[in-house]
Amino acid sequence: MTPRPDPVQPGQESVWDYPRPPRLEAFGRRIRIELGGRVIAETTGAYRVLETSHPPNYYLPPDDIVPGALVRTHRRSSCEWKGLAHYFDVHAGALVEPDAAWGYDTPSVAFGAIAGYVAFYAGRMDACWVGDELVVPQPGGFYGGWVTADVAGPFKGIPGSQGW
């Protein structure tokens, strides 16, 4: 059963207006990620993926991630839209968050621009920022969307949303 979309306030987008299959778009606002008291990534060159019922996922260029912050793991998963994903442990000094970031070496043609880019689970980091706004992780822990005041839900991942 599809839920009733939350009212959209001025300056917001409804995740229920996002397409399926998802859309990829360049995103020029500042993205910053902190772990272990350190900034491990900062960019104005991200992409975001917009998919029905999900807050955006942000993919950062590898050159804007602190060298040594990512160590590739053996974990893999498959996305019906983007293709085969691989994962990274995220390091900040002695702190390690296992499999807390992911990317695609050879995504599908529609998502080719994010080849080599990296997305992070906001809930596994100390803080993720879009502009000056602290991100709230997408509910449920399975998906990696970032909730900001710019998006209206409800968001997949809340209890009872498995069938959306």
CATH class label: Mainly Beta
Radius of gyration (Å): 15 Å
Beta strands, count: 15
CATH level-3 fold name: Metal Binding Protein, Guanine Nucleotide Exchange Factor, Chain A
Chain-wise SSE layout:
Elements: E1 13-14, E2 23-27, E3 31-35, E4 38-43, E5 46-50, E6 57-59, E7 70-79, E8 83-92, E9 95-103, E10 118-120, E11 127-130, E12 133-134, E13 136-137, E14 146-147, E15 151-152
Q: How would you characterize the overall build of this protein?
A:
By secondary structure, the protein is an all-beta fold. The chain has a single domain (13-152), classed as Domain of unknown function (DUF427) (Metal Binding Protein, Guanine Nucleotide Exchange Factor, Chain A), CATH 2.170.150.40. 0% of the residues lie in helices and 43% in strands. The strands form five sheets. The protein has a four-stranded antiparallel β-sheet with strand order 4-3-11-12, with no helix packed on it. A four-stranded antiparallel β-sheet has the order 7-8-9-10, with no helix packed on it. A three-stranded antiparallel β-sheet has the order 2-5-6, with no helix packed on it. Strand 3 (31-35) and strand 4 form a beta hairpin. 36% of the residues are buried.
Index terms:
single chain; 164 residues; Metal Binding Protein, Guanine Nucleotide Exchange Factor, Chain A; four-stranded antiparallel β-sheet
Give a short overview.
Helix content is 0%, strand content 43%.
